[in-house]
Specification:
By secondary structure, this protein is mainly α. The protein has twelve helices and no strands.
Length: 299
């Protein structure tokens, strides 16, 4: 009798535990809010720790960005170039500040070394040189960013022309537009195809049309070819034949524009080579004529 009671009680306890595990009781609202507040507090502490651990360049860049934007300095062109180069504005401003400080300190150190060797400089020209060199050095990162942005825009235009050719060939092979767009983007490699592939994937996941996504990408990178492609194709997006014809026409016009840009670039470089050759010839002529001129002047 006792064994039967123990077995029955154990079986009932096991059933209760099983039901408790499968259908847990609903937690009280106050307990859930308390757990949520604790999680938010831990997240804020982590963010403050990350902010505290930032180096002086990051803090200076954030302070410069906040101060200049509050005074109406928006850095519109600089933001477009930084968006192409995928560099935060805070990091760019911190780099400019670093370049300026290094340039100014280099002039200061050089003046101190020269003063120790016996060469004296007036105070006002020295301070003016420190300020001028520091300000001039702070613009060097802008030149690097501009050159990189120009190179990436040229790469995007070249990649867009190839991408449109690949999409057109996929459409001619019988694939649909929703299949041809990501397939063509996955074929190529490089920064341009990575941007196109990620843009198409995000558009598919978010339910956005690929043409609208390409238009936004063109506006963000300041590339008119992408904006024109998205705006023109959006009008005929329902007709597959018209889409294929539109993409073919865009690819042809992109190739012609790319060819014209390459010819202009070749012409500019040929002009630079010609100018360098003329300067070299002038220097060689002066080198040859200088002894004769000195002899004539001494007669």
């Amino acid at each position: 009798m006792t064994i039967s009671l123990l077995l029955g009680g154990s079986f009932g306890l096991a059933v209760c535990l099983l039901v408790y595990a499968l259908v847990p009781p609903r937690a009280a609202l106050a307990h859930q809010l308390g757990a949520f507040d604790k999680a938010q507090t831990r997240q804020r502490v982590r963010q403050q720790a990350v902010t505290t651990d930032m180096d002086w360049r990051s803090r200076a860049g954030r302070w410069l960005t906040t101060s200049l934007v509050a005074r109406g300095v928006l850095f519109t062109k600089t933001r477009e170039r930084l968006a192409i180069c995928e560099i935060p504005l805070e990091q760019h401003l911190a780099t400019r500040l670093t370049y300026g400080l290094v340039g100014g300190l280099s002039v200061l150190v050089a003046s101190v070394v020269l003063s120790v060797t016996g060469v004296s400089f007036a105070l006002v020209p020295t301070l003016g040189g420190i300020v001028l060199i520091g300000v001039g050095a702070s613009f060097l990162p802008d030149l690097d960013i501009r050159n990189e942005a120009v190179g990436r825009r040229r790469e995007m235009r070249r990649g867009l022309s190839t991408y449109l050719d690949l999409v057109t060939m996929s459409l001619a092979g019988g694939r649909g537009i929703q299949e041809a767009l990501p397939l063509a983007a996955s074929v190529g490699s490089g920064w341009a195809f990575e941007q196109l592939s990620s843009t198409i994937e995000r558009a598919q996941l978010s339910g956005q049309t690929p043409w609208a996504a390409l238009t936004e990408l063109g506006e963000r990178l300041a590339i008119s070819e992408l904006v024109e492609l998205g705006a023109a194709t959006e009008l005929v997006a329902e007709d597959g034949a018209k889409v294929r014809d539109s993409l073919k026409a865009r690819a042809s016009s992109s190739r012609r524009r790319q060819l014209a840009d390459n010819e202009k670039l070749i012409g500019d470089r040929n002009m630079l080579i010609m100018v360098a050759t003329l300067w070299l010839a002038a220097g060689f002529g002066i080198f040859l004529l200088y002894p004769a001129l000195t002899r004539v002047m001494t007669i």
